[in-house]
């Protein structure tokens, strides 16, 4: 009712021509809430471009997305067709093979060629560029040989005929004569050449032996290999040495191994680091009888055969040589590229054509002298094989840290061959 009364009063006032303004009410504070992190469905977002600095991509973007511009215009290179060469896009151009060869030769020789796209344009070389004179006829005249003057045929002494030299040849000879050395300079150069010592020519290594005795055979026709008549192959007792009896000197470096002649012991074989093997007389003159030269490096080990007529020598040059003790001839040389540290003949009389070689590559190689090849390899050692010893009737081997080998022979499968020792 009150509102109706107020409304009535407002109408009355309007009728009288007076404006009515309602009373002002005080402003009220309004609290507005803003959500700074609204919930967004990430699956609905589609990435339209990839940043050039992106390292990992977890989806399969299209080619347009990969190369779309981040800010600004499109990429100047990839807006064009896809590059088909290392340096960019190369357009195909068809040209006749003969024309291409001609233009290539002109470019290499003269320094210019016709532009493949523009008929009137010329491409010039940077390194072999020539200045164009504009008149090719003049250039041809310059390079053309001048006509020779043969002279008068009636002048017997002055007429040279077709042997008349060209003017260019005469000019070249004149320059050579100006720059030629005088006789004094030539003599001085020759004297300096004589003063310079020529480098010594290295001789090729040759396997040989040198006999140091006076006579190869005695009055009975025996060689130094034959034992003296008073020596008998009997067993004898061995004792510790008590005094120095004799010293054999002849090697220039350290001696690695010495071996007495089998059964009799009237000869002594020594292996040295100077690459030589020497055999010495023990009973008579006690001198060096023969020197065997067959290794370019030091000799590591030696071994006599059962009868002493042959012996093996192995060196640091990766070679194993078989020698004839009497004549000094090298019967055979064996090598597998490995350094053999020890060699040993098979003690059995029927197996003197076989020997073992302990190598630095932790293996033992069994060689056949007749074929010159390895028959068997044994590779269970943990270190280089330094010694080989036959035991148990030549069937096994033992040592401080032994590996016992029982090897079947191809010729006699019922009997074992040998044993070996690997020393750490």
> What strand line-up does the widest sheet have?
3-7-6-5-4
Roughly how many Å apart are the termini? 125 Å
Structural class: alpha+beta
Helix content: 10-25%
Molecular shape: flat
Mean pLDDT: 75
Rg over alpha carbons: 52 Å
Quick recap:
Helices cover 16% and strands 20% of the residues. With 424 residues, the chain is of the alpha+beta class.
Q: What's the arrangement of secondary structure elements?
A:
Elements: H1 2-15, H2 63-67, H3 97-109, E1 112-114, E2 122-124, H4 136-143, H5 167-179, H6 183-195, E3 208-211, E4 255-260, E5 267-272, E6 276-281, E7 288-293, E8 299-304, E9 310-315, E10 320-324, E11 330-334, E12 340-345, E13 354-359, E14 364-368, E15 373-378, E16 402-403, E17 420-421
Antiparallel strand pairs: 1-2, 3-7, 4-5, 5-6, 6-7, 8-9, 9-10, 10-11, 12-13, 13-14, 14-15, 16-17
How would you characterize the overall build of this protein?
The protein is of the alpha+beta class and 424 residues long. The chain has helices at residues 2-15, 63-67, 97-109, 136-143, 167-179, 183-195, and strands at residues 112-114, 122-124, 208-211, 255-260, 267-272, 276-281, 288-293, 299-304, 310-315, 320-324, 330-334, 340-345, 354-359, 364-368, 373-378, 402-403, 420-421.
């Amino acid at each position: 009712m009150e509102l109706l009364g107020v409304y009535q009063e407002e109408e009355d006032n309007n009728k009288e021509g007076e404006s009515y303004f309602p009373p002002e009410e005080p402003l009220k504070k309004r609290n507005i809430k803003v959500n700074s992190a609204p919930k967004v469905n990430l699956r609905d977002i589609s990435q339209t471009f990839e940043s050039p600095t992106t390292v990992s991509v977890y989806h399969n973007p299209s080619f347009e997305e990969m190369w779309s511009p981040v800010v600004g215009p499109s990429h100047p290179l990839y807006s064009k067709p896809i590059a088909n060469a290392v340096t960019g896009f190369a357009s195909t151009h068809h040209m006749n093979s003969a024309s291409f060869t001609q233009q290539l030769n002109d470019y290499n020789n003269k320094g210019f060629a016709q532009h493949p796209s523009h008929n009137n344009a010329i491409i010039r070389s940077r390194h072999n560029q020539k200045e164009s004179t504009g008149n090719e006829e003049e250039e041809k005249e310059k390079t053309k040989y001048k006509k020779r003057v043969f002279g008068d045929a009636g002048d017997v002494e002055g007429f040279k005929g077709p042997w008349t030299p060209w003017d260019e040849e005469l000019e070249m000879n004149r320059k050579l004569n100006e720059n030629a050395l005088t006789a004094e300079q030539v003599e001085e150069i020759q004297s300096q050449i004589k003063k310079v010592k020529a480098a010594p020519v290295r001789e090729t290594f040759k396997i040989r032996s040198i006999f140091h005795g006076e006579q190869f055979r005695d009055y009975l026709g025996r060689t130094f290999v034959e034992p003296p008549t008073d020596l008998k192959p009997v067993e004898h007792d061995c004792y510790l040495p008590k005094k120095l009896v004799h010293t054999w000197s002849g090697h220039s470096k350290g001696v690695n191994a010495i071996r007495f002649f089998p059964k009799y012991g009237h000869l002594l074989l020594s292996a040295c680091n100077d690459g030589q093997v020497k055999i010495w007389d023990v009973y008579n003159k006690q001198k060096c009888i023969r020197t065997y030269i067959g290794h370019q490096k030091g000799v590591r080990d030696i071994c006599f055969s059962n009868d002493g007529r042959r012996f093996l020598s192995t060196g640091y040059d990766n070679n194993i040589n078989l020698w004839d003790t009497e004549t000094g001839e090298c019967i055979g040389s064996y090598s597998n590229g490995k350094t053999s540290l020890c060699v040993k003949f098979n003690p059995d009389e029927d197996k003197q054509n076989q020997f073992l070689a302990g190598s630095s590559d932790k293996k033992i190689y069994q060689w056949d002298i007749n074929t010159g090849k390895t028959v068997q390899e044994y590779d269970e050692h943990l270190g280089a094989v330094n010694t080989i010893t036959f035991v148990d009737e030549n069937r096994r081997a033992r040592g401080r840290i032994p590996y016992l080998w029982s090897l079947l022979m191809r010729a006699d499968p019922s009997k074992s061959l040998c044993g070996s020792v690997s020393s750490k």
